[in-house]
Amino acid sequence: MNAILRSAAGKEAGRAAATVKVWDPLVRVFHWSLVASVFGAFLVEEGDTAHCWLGYTALGLVAFRLLWGFFGTRHARFSDFVRGPRAVAEYVRARLAGTSQRRLGHNPAAALMILSLLALIAAVGVTGWMLTLDAFFGAEWLEDVHGTLAWTLLALVGVHVLAAIVESVHYRENLIATMLHGRKRAIEDREK
Ligand code: HEM
Ligand code: HEM
Q: Exposure pattern of 97-126 as b/e (b: 16+ CB <10 Å)?
């Protein structure tokens, strides 16, 4: 009986050890709130109150993420995933050659995408806010800048989602589900 219990406990421990916690709850709530507020801003009438508040929400979320990038949990920290151009190029080269290694946190290419998305959202939000100021009343050039940045952001989101799907297939790990439950398959020795 004891042997059966021990074996069951062993299996349970093995299963628990097979996945590790990667994205803390704040990162996950941040991500899906950002998705809702950015898509929301595109969907509601441009320039009206709801549009602006959705934009301000996205701005607030970006501000939170910058702080969390310094003070957050291990894989949320910029120091865990932000790398220079050489590391990004190296990762892309290895990935295309099929020799890249799966990572628990964001890979260097994903990090570049993440920083670009955050910067673009900040720029779209700030130019949107500027449009409400008397100083820029009727400034068509600023409307154009705001619009162009926003459509560029949407295009980048398209690439981001496509990359998430392609990488999920490549590494045989549902990265989108990972952004929901926060866990990833532990790195095994043969992957190192
Ligand atoms: C994530 C944030 C935001 C996104 C994705 C976004 C997106 C857009 C888009 C797609 C348009 C239409 C551009 C076009 O005509 O092609 C637009 C217009 C506009 N947005 Fe935003 N926006 C954001 C934030 C804001 C904020 C925070 C404000 C104001 C406080 C704002 C104010 C406006 C105004 C006034 C227009 C109309 C400009 C015009 O007349 O052409 N937006 N926005
Ligand atoms: C407006 C739309 C979106 C924006 C602005 C956005 C932005 C971001 C950001 C900033 C991160 C980094 C998360 C962090 O560390 O805090 C991220 C990660 C991620 N996003 Fe999105 N996202 C959007 C839509 C989506 C959608 C629709 C999906 C899936 C269907 C998705 C899947 C993912 C995945 C899988 C990751 C983790 C990537 C990795 O494992 O390295 N995102 N996204």
A: eeebebbbebbbbbbbbbeebbebbbbbbe
Q: Which residues line ligand 1 (CB under 6 A)?
A: 38, 41-42, 46-47, 51-52, 55-56, 58, 121, 124-125, 128-129, 131-132, 143, 146-147, 150, 153
Domains assigned to the chain:
20-191 (1.20.950.20)
Convert the pLDDT of each residue in 130-174 to its tens digit.
999 999 999 999 999 999 999 999 999 999 999 999 999 999 999
Measured from the CA of 121, which atom of ligand 2 is nearest?
A: 5
